[in-house]
Design a protein that fits this description.
- This protein has helices spanning about 5-10, 25-40, 50-60, 70-85, 105-115, 130-140, 185-195, 200-210, 210-215, 220-240, 255, 290-295, 355-370, 385-390; strands spanning about 95, 120-125, 150-160, 165-175, 240-250, 260-265, 270, 280, 300-305, 315, 320, 325-330, 335-340, 375.
- The protein is an alpha+beta fold and about 400 residues long.
- The chain folds into 3 domains: about 25-85, no CATH class; about 95-125 and about 240-390, Trna Endonuclease, Chain: A, domain 1 (3-Layer(aba) Sandwich), CATH 3.40.1350; about 130-240, no CATH class.
- It is globular and about 75 Å long.
- The relative contact order is 0.12.
Length: about 400
């Protein structure tokens, strides 16, 4: 007798159906993406594309939020178009920013550069027991994670000559059955992201009393768990960081200061200066950096200053840090002072984002490790004259 195919046999078959869903980036989504790019140092507060974004875009390593990964090609296309777009400018305001080579061999510049040119490396100490205790306490306080839900939306489609529109007619929600989703390997997922021992991960999960939240919505809880662990881990690394000066290793002038002429605009991002390495300062903010540059250039006590080029970076556990300004001041004609200054719209450390505050602290520890007289202030600077009276 030949083999038979019956309805009973077919009914036992299981399969996975993949559907494509077209989504539109909302205004809130767009703001989240822009904030992400700012935090990564890809763009300025005004939206100007920085070199770091251009480099990673060309290398195909642009960091975008994970939930928008499916739209990577479209994001890259939009950014590439914005980067290549030629803006309409008044040519009367166009300036070519030039490096003043004679200044780079002046005693004032060499004295300032000598204070900041040395490189360092960092070491971190991490108490895993303390990390575990802090993570248990913080995860125990996380917002509750409800069961995963399936949202069903019904809409009426209207096909007209002008196009296709839709009107939403109903929305319903139902909890996802526990057997409908397979539990992921939680410990492996956390270990891959946070580099903790599997024992520590298990102890934190059990100790926090949040196992039911994991069962309710494994993906959501795992994301929240990893984010909390990373935040505490990064903070502990920064709190325990120390920098060591590397004898004989330094930043090279030719690498840091570009001799290539740059085009900028006096009505948008450039201001002429006298006491700097370049004949113009290219600024990111017209509310903080522009007035700072004008004030410091007109101060007779300032003998040399420059905006530190983007290639001058300090390594930190959470990425590289590029300080804002280097300043050489002759106080009252008898005392030489050297500063590296971070300018912000606030003078409070608490007013900075977490990553900004962490990198600021790394800058402090780095320049303290150089131990050669350069001062990195204990808080950001907003106004040069206000800062000077405190010196």
């Amino acid at each position: 007798m030949g083999a038979e195919v019956t309805a009973e046999k077919v009914a036992e078959i299981t399969y996975t159906e993949t559907k494509e869903i077209e989504k539109t980036v909302s205004h809130d989504d767009a703001q989240e993406i822009i904030t992400h790019f700012e935090e990564k140092g890809y763009i300025s507060a005004s939206g100007k594309i920085k070199d770091s974004m251009k480099q990673e875009l060309n290398a195909g390593t642009l960091d975008i939020p994970e939930r928008f990964e499916a739209a990577r090609e479209k994001f890259e296309a939009v950014i590439s178009k914005a980067n290549s777009r030629v803006p309409v400018r008044n040519r009367n305001n166009e300036v070519t920013v030039k490096l003043k080579k004679q200044v780079m061999i002046s005693p004032e510049f060499l004295a300032l550069w000598d204070k900041i040119k040395n490189k360092t490396t960092y070491r971190v100490s991490l108490d895993e027991d303390k990390l575990k205790t802090l993570c248990i306490a913080e995860i125990a306080k996380m917002e509750s994670v409800p069961k995963a839900r399936v949202i069903t939306r019904t809409a009426q489609m209207n096909v007209e000559q002008s196009g296709v529109t839709h009107t939403e007619t109903s929305v319903s929600a139902s909890e996802m059955r526990e057997e409908a989703h397979r539990l992921p390997n939680f410990i492996r997922a956390v270990d891959n992201e946070c580099f903790l021992s599997q024992r520590t991960v298990a102890d934190v999960l059990v100790g926090s009393g949040r196992l039911q939240d994991f069962l309710n919505n494994p993906q959501k809880f795992t994301e929240m768990f990893i984010e909390t662990i990373k935040t505490i881990h990064d903070k502990m690394q920064i709190d325990g960081i120390r920098y060591i000066r590397l004898d004989g290793e330094e930043y090279f002038l030719q690498e840091i200061f570009e001799s290539e002429e740059l085009v900028a605009y006096l009505d948008r991002n450039a201001v002429a200066v006298d006491n700097s390495v370049y004949d113009h300062i290219i600024y990111d903010s017209d509310t903080v950096e522009l007035p700072f540059a004008k004030a410091i250039d007109s101060d007779p006590d300032v003998k040399m200053f420059f905006k530190i080029p983007p290639k001058f970076v300090i390594e930190t556990p959470i990425g590289t840090y590029n300080p804002d300004w280097a300043v050489y001041m002759d106080k009252d004609g008898v005392e030489k002072l050297y500063f590296v200054i971070e300018t912000k719209g606030t003078t409070r450390l608490g007013g900075l984002r977490d990553d900004e505050r962490s990198k600021f602290k790394c800058g402090q520890v780095h320049f303290a490790a150089l131990d050669n007289g350069v001062v990195f202030p204990d808080k950001p600077v907003r106004d040069w004259r206000e800062f000077k009276v405190r010196v």
